[in-house]
Amino acid sequence: MVVLAAALVLGGRHMVAGGGLPATGTVERVVDGDTFVLAGGARVRLLGIDTPETVDPDRPVGCFGPQASAYTKHLLTGRRVRLVYDHEHRDVYGRLLAYVYLDGTPPLFVNRRLIERGFARTLSIPPNTAHADELAAAERRAALTGVGLWAACP
Questions:
Q1: What are all long-range contacts of 13-17, with beta carbons under 8 Å and residues at least 24 apart?
Q2: Residue 29 falls within a domain, yes or no?
Q3: What secondary structure letter does DSSP report for 107?
Q4: CATH number at residue 145
Q5: How many domains does the chain have?
Q6: Of the candidates 19, 65, 82, 85, which lies 20 to 30 Å from 48 by C-alpha distance?
Q7: What does the pLDDT read at residue 56?
Q8: How many whole angstroms separate alpha carbon 98 and alpha carbon 13?
Q9: Model confidence over 130-148: pLDDT tens digits?
Q10: Residue-range definition of the domain harbouring residue 43
Q11: Distance (Å, rounded) from C-alpha 131 to C-alpha 133?
């Protein structure tokens, strides 16, 4: 599968991915376990995962939702992230859809980390499936070892 855009940072400047999409940014705030806002206001939804609900006024707070939100806040708030896009760049709410990475050696794949630690389940929606197999394997391991929501939720 092909990831349509790669992120570049040169000399500390933002470089944009195809179509004027941000390739990097600093996380200003976390909305919930799978959504955050970049400095400048762009909302980003993590692709391939779904964390339990915490902010939808029409739905109850999901089992392990507050823990997932807290972990995402701890992991991302104030940090510079790299965004990599799949086939669709935005959802029906206008949020950017991205696989998110924190720099390091090796870079930390945030979407997978949330699944590995039991804060998220997979949510594969075609055509955005570049990492579907990898994320499904991480989910199977998390479920088998009983971490996070796999231990706490019926």
A1: 17/83, 17/84, 17/85
A2: yes
A3: P
A4: 2.40.50.90
A5: 1
A6: 19
A7: 87
A8: 20
A9: 999 999 999 999 999 999 9
A10: 9-149
A11: 6
End-to-end CA distance of the chain: 34
The catalytic residue positions are 45, 53, 95
Asked whether residue 2 is domain-assigned, the answer is: no
Q: Bridge partners of 100?
A: 83
Is 1 inside any structural domain? Answer: no
Residue 82 in domain = yes
Q: Which residues pair with 122 in a beta bridge?
A: 49
* Rounded Cα–Cα distance for residues 37 and 22 (Å): 12
pTM: 0.86
Place of tokens 């794949």: 109
Q: Per the structure block, which two tokens stand in for 47?
A: 């692709």
Cβ–Cβ under 8 Å, residues 39 and 77: no
- Find the mean pLDDT for residues 52-61: 90
Q: What are phi and psi for residue 38, nearest 5 degrees?
A: -85, 155
CA 143, 148, 153, 154: dihedral to nearest 10 degrees? 20
